[in-house]
Amino acid sequence: MHILPPIRPELSIQRLTALLEPIAEKMKVVPRKRITWTHKNRQQLYLFLGGELSILRASDGLLIVTVYEPHLFGIAEMIQPVRGHLLRAETESTILRVDAQTAMDTFREHGAWEDVVTLLSYHTAYLFYRDALLVQQKTYAVIRSHLQEMSLLSEDTRMRVSILDYIQERTHLSRSSVLNVLSALKNGNYINFKRGGYLVELNQLPERF
Fold it and tell me: Using an 8 Å Cβ cutoff, are 166 and 158 in contact?
């Protein structure tokens, strides 16, 4: 069964961004730069406005998700700063930071906590979604889900990251496990990729293989 991700709360993200953007500070970010949750020992929120940004698990670097659309990060860390994740810019990106206490005061002043809770609920649901893709799933099921995820990316993005790197960074499956499945799928004409392992075409994948 294909597992569907939660629906992005677009309106809440837009309203929160509109509140924070005027008081935010623009950051200088370069590709592969890692971003932590504090600046000058103060907790921060981050407005991602354009480019490509990933969330990594701090303990082992597992890539949780890569985003391409405007988003707000740091809500959970603002309330409960456990430092379990960090951010990484994948390309040149437009990112703004806001002092967390200033952001909380702004949310309170404008009665925006319903939007904050909506966004926090989405982030929690996304973590459950990622767990459903990975935990106690057979190797093929995990690879299948990530291939379907890759097929939704733009061609430009797919030509920048190989299938192997995309799946390994998000799952920590062994290289041989991934390559064996990809080889079998290519021999069955379910998938087409160019030299270097860049996804060109994905056909309807079997439920089991």
Answer: no
pLDDT digits (tens, 9 = 90+) for 117-137: 999 999 999 999 988 888 878
Domain ranges of the chain: 10-134, 139-202
CATH superfamily of 10-134: Jelly Rolls (2.60.120.10)
Residue pLDDT, tens place only, 165-204: 999 999 989 999 999 999 999 999 999 999 999 999 999 9
Q: How far apart are CA 71 and CA 10, in angstroms?
A: 9
Q: Which residue has the tokens 């960090």?
A: 86
Q: Taking the model in full, what pTM does it have?
A: 0.86
Cα separation of 2 and 133, whole Å? 9
The rounded distance, in Å, linking the Cα atoms of 68 and 48 is: 9
